[in-house]
Design goal:
Blueprint lengths: L2 H10 L1 H5 L16 E7 L2 H17 L3 E9 L1 H9 L5 E5 H8 L9 H16 L1 E3 L9 E5 L1 H7 L4 H9 L6 E5 H5 L4 H7 L4 H4 L3 E5 L4 H7 L5 E5 L3 H6 L2 E2 L12 E6 H6 L1 H10 L5 H13 L4 H11 L4
Helix pairs in contact: 3-15, 3-17, 5-6
Length: 313
C-alpha cells in the first residue's frame, strides 16, 4: 500500500462524509414500526436496486414502503440513513470501507471486506448489511476483446508486461479524475510494476464520466480503459474485464445497508432483501443498467421485470 494512496483515502474518506451531515433534502423521516423508507443514489444502477427493494417489500410484507430513490451521492444517502431519514439503501463494500469508514487498507477478498465493513457499521452507527448481491462493481481495467485475444492479455499483469516489453504504440483511456488522483492510475501503475518510462510512451486520453471511454474502445481508437465491472457499456460492447490478479482493488460488492432497528421491528424485511439480493449478478446488473441508459426504460419497471422473472413477486 502506497503512503500517498493511504493519505488520500484517509483525507477523502470519513471526513468527507461527516461534512455532509444534515444536508439531506428529505422532508419526511424514515420508517416507523409499520413503514419503511428506501433511498438510493442518483444514477440508473442505484435507482433500479432501490426499486427492487420497494417492489419486493410491498409485495411480500404488510409494511407501507416509502420511495426516496434518487437522493444524490454517497454522502447524502449515508447521512440520510444515519439520521433516520431513510431506513435502507444499497451501498458498495469498497465505498463503505474506504469512503464512509475512512479505511486506507485495500481488501481484495469479498467475504473479508463484507464482514469487516458490516461489523464496523454495526458498532459505529447501528447499521447493518443484509445478504450481498452476486454483482461485483469493483474497479478494473477493461480491454477491447480482439486486441486482448491477439496479444494473450487476460490479467492486469499481462497488460503490465506488454507495456514493459516496449509495446507502447497504443492509446489508453481513463477518466480524468482517476488518471490524476493519488489512489488512481498512478497507484495502479506502481503496484503492477509498469515502468514509468514505458508508460510515458503510451498515449493517455482523458475523458469525463458518462461512457465515452467505452465508445472510444468500441470504435477501435484505444485498446483499454479504467472502469468498474457493472458498467452497462461492458455488456453492450462485449468488452473484456482484465483480472486484478495482484489484488490492487478492494472488492465492491453491492449490498443493502439498513438500520438494525428496522430489521428488529420487522424481521420480514431482512428475509425479503436476503432473497432479492442474490438474484442480481454482475451480468444482470449490466443488462438492466443498459436498459435504463440506452432504452430510456423506467427503473421501477426494470426492477419489477427482474423480480417477476426471478419469481420474487
Amino acid at each position: 500500500m502506497h503512503n500517498s494512496r493511504r493519505a488520500f483515502l484517509q483525507s477523502a474518506g470519513a471526513i468527507g462524509i461527516a461534512s455532509m451531515a444534515g444536508c439531506s433534502s428529505i422532508v419526511d423521516g424514515g420508517g416507523s414500526g409499520d413503514s419503511i423508507t428506501i433511498g438510493s443514489k442518483q444514477f440508473a444502477e442505484q435507482e433500479i436496486l432501490g426499486h427492487m427493494a420497494i417492489a419486493a417489500l410491498r409485495e411480500n410484507t404488510d409494511l407501507t414502503v416509502n420511495d426516496e430513490t434518487g437522493l444524490g451521492g454517497t454522502s447524502q444517502c449515508f447521512n440520510a440513513l444515519k439520521n433516520d431519514e431513510i431506513d435502507c439503501y444499497w451501498t458498495y463494500t469498497g465505498t463503505l470501507w474506504h469512503q464512509i469508514l475512512g479505511k486506507s487498507n485495500v481488501i481484495p477478498d469479498g467475504e473479508q471486506i463484507y464482514s469487516e465493513s458490516k461489523s464496523a457499521a454495526e458498532e459505529e452507527w447501528g447499521l447493518t448489511l443484509t445478504e450481498p448481491t452476486g454483482a461485483d462493481a469493483s474497479w478494473t481495467i477493461v480491454a477491447r476483446p480482439d486486441w486482448a485475444s491477439e496479444h494473450g492479455i487476460e490479467t492486469i499483469s499481462d497488460f503490465a508486461s506488454y507495456v514493459n516489453d516496449g509495446n507502447t504504440d497504443m492509446t489508453f483511456v481513463s477518466y480524468t479524475e482517476y488518471a490524476e488522483r493519488e489512489d488512481g492510475l498512478p497507484a495502479l501503475i506502481e503496484d503492477y510494476g509498469i515502468e514509468q518510462s514505458a508508460w510515458d510512451e503510451v498515449k493517455l486520453r482523458k475523458v469525463g464520466y458518462g461512457g465515452l471511454n467505452y465508445q472510444i474502445l468500441n470504435d477501435g481508437q484505444a485498446v483499454a480503459t479504467s472502469g468498474w465491472q457493472t458498467q452497462p457499456q461492458i455488456y453492450k460492447y462485449d468488452l473484456r474485464i482484465l483480472d486484478d490478479d495482484k489484488g490492487h482493488f478492494s472488492k465492491y460488492w453491492i449490498v443493502p445497508m439498513i438500520q438494525q432497528d428496522a430489521i428488529d421491528s420487522n424481521p420480514a424485511v431482512k428475509e425479503t432483501l436476503d432473497e432479492v439480493a442474490p438474484s442480481v449478478t454482475t451480468e444482470k446488473m449490466q443488462q438492466m443498467a443498459l436498459e435504463a441508459s440506452e432504452e430510456d426504460k423506467d427503473p421501477a419497471s426494470i426492477a419489477r421485470d427482474h423480480l417477476s422473472s426471478e419469481g420474487l413477486i
